[in-house]
């Protein structure tokens, strides 16, 4: 293994359960710092359960796993907010607060994660909105934005605490093809700046357009696939 690469995620003999149901078994994989990795698979193949295990929504009870320096098996309830600060999570349905404008949505997250200094908060918000091409839209409310713009804001929100890893769960799932490509370009730029990204998707057009390391959920397993076999 390349020694100068830091492993951001490593799973060994992991089983993922949704309540009592075994969803995935014998999962062995690692993701290095700076990689862009797709997670593909049919609906119901376990992609979301896999993602939820990574950000502490589902407990890891079998096997061993570490993510951004946290032991997933020994993860305590009180550690989860700290884990999530080192992860940026982007959801399919944006999860923006409808009664607050873009800036207020981002301020809410910063305050919730311990930021106090108003000037630093404003500077950080300007920086992340700039990265996703939304610098002039901070005063707008979610309903005044297109789906693609809302997802850009959601990506900006995920960048607020300089995460070591971004988990994007079907980030283009609610977007039309053109907008999906625009959002993908934003994620690609973020990755080129050194950010590690794991993106669950069923949009095979994006995989062809932006080929990268690909993991597949199928038959309760997760395995790496060669692009042409996708």
From TrEMBL:
BP terms from Gene Ontology: cell division
Keyword Cell division: yes
Keywords: ATP-binding, Cell cycle, Cell division, Nucleotide-binding
Described purpose of this protein according to its UniProt entry: Part of the ABC transporter FtsEX involved in cellular division. Important for assembly or stability of the septal ring.
Pfam families (UniProt xref): ABC_tran
Residue span, ABC transporter domain: 9-230
Protein name: Cell division ATP-binding protein FtsE
Upper lineage: Bacteria, Pseudomonadati, Bacteroidota, Flavobacteriia, Flavobacteriales
The organism of origin for this protein: Zhouia amylolytica AD3
Family, per entry: Belongs to the ABC transporter superfamily.
């Amino acid at each position: 293994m390349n020694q100068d690469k830091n492993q951001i995620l490593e799973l060994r003999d992991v089983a993922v359960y949704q309540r009592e149901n075994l969803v995935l078994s014998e999962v062995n994989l690692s993701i290095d710092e700076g990689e862009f990795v797709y997670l593909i698979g049919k609906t119901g193949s376990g992609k979301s359960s896999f993602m939820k295990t990574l950000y502490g929504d589902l407990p890891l009870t079998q096997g061993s796993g570490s993510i951004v320096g946290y032991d997933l098996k020994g993860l305590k309830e009180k550690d989860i907010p700290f884990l999530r600060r080192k992860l940026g999570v982007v959801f399919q349905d944006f999860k923006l607060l409808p009664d607050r404008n873009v800036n207020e949505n981002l301020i809410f997250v910063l305050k919730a994660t311990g930021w106090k200094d108003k000037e630093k908060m404003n500077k950080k918000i300007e920086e992340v909105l700039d990265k996703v091409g939304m610098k002039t839209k901070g005063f707008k409310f979610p309903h005044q934005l297109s789906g693609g713009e809302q997802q850009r804001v959601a990506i900006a929100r995920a960048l607020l605490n300089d995460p070591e890893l971004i988990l994007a769960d079907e980030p283009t799932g609610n977007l039309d093809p053109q907008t999906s490509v625009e959002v993908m370009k934003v994620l690609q730029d973020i990755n080129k700046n050194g950010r590690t990204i794991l993106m669950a998707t069923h949009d095979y057009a994006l995989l062809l357009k932006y080929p990268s390391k690909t993991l597949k959920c199928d038959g309760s397993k997760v395995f790496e696939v060669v692009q042409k076999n996708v």
